Amino acid sequence: MPSMSSPSSCVPGVQARARGPERAGLPRPLAVGALWAALALPALAEPAAAPCPAPAGPPVIQLRTAGKALQGCDLKGLMALPEREVSTTLPRELGIAGKHRWTGVSLKRLVERLGGGPADTVQLGALNDYTVTIPWSDLQQYDPVLAYQRGGQAMSVRDKGPLILIYPFDAHPELLSSQHYINRSIWQVNALTLK
Predict the structure, then answer these.
(1) How far from 89 is each of 92, 123, 171, CA to CA, in Å?
(2) What is the pTM of this model?
(3) In the predicted structure, residue 43 carries a pLDDT above the cut 70
(4) Hey, what domains does the chain have and what are their CATH numbers?
(5) 81: which strand partners?
(6) pLDDT one-digit tens code per residue, 96-132
(7) How far apart are CA 20 and CA 7, in angstroms?
């Protein structure tokens, strides 16, 4: 009777085809290693998905994460991300009267695209070096928008742009009773850092 390790068949006169590593002419341990390498190398060669496309123009925001390289996003790159809109009236302390339609990206989704989550601290910085810390609970409960348009128009630095963090004040009137949310409505945003 033929041995089990032999490529011969149990049927007399019929030669069995070698399977697995023997077929490739490699010893079994080398073949297994080659298989793992073939599966792992394509995954290692592909870079992790960037939070936004590489900037074609000057970046409007710098994205930083602990232990990872800095990435800039231009306005076109941010506009390529899933859009979120909110119509709300801002507190008068922010100096923008009336109800406006704000268009931008969900801050929560942008943080998640950076690999952030509930354990991270989200810090936004402005052109004048003002910074605010946004708790994850705000992202979960209110889903504020990092807006790049007001009323369908891009915002200049003079108009508190190019980016401003907008909380849905009309949908959540309780936000108006806390100075924290007014202070967190940072304008001229130019940096997002995960710590």
Answers:
(1) 9, 24, 10
(2) 0.73
(3) no
(4) 1-46 (no CATH), 61-194 (3.90.420.10)
(5) none
(6) 999 999 999 999 999 999 889 999 989 999 999 999 9
(7) 11
- Provide the CA 156 distance to its chain's centre, in angstroms: 25
CB 164 within 8 A of CB 186: yes
Give me the pLDDT at residue 136, please.
95
- pLDDT above 70 covers a percentage of the chain that reads 74
**Residue 1, token pair as written in the block:** 């009777």
**Do 64 and 125 form a contact (C-beta atoms < 8 A)?**
no
Q: Coil, strand or helix: which one is 172?
A: coil
Q: What's the burial of 176, exposed, middle or buried (CB within 10 Å: 0-12/13-18/19+)?
A: middle
Q: Got the DSSP string for 96-160? A: --SEEEEEEEEHHHHHHHTT--TTSPEEEEETTS-EEEE-HHHHHHT--EEEEEETTEE--GGGT
CB-side neighbour CA atoms (13 Å) of 115: 12
Torsions phi, psi for 178 (to 5 deg): -125, 125
Whether 149 and 108 have beta carbons less than 8 Å apart is answered as no
For the segment 75-105, what is each residue's pLDDT rounded down to a tens digit? 999 999 999 999 999 999 999 999 999 999 9
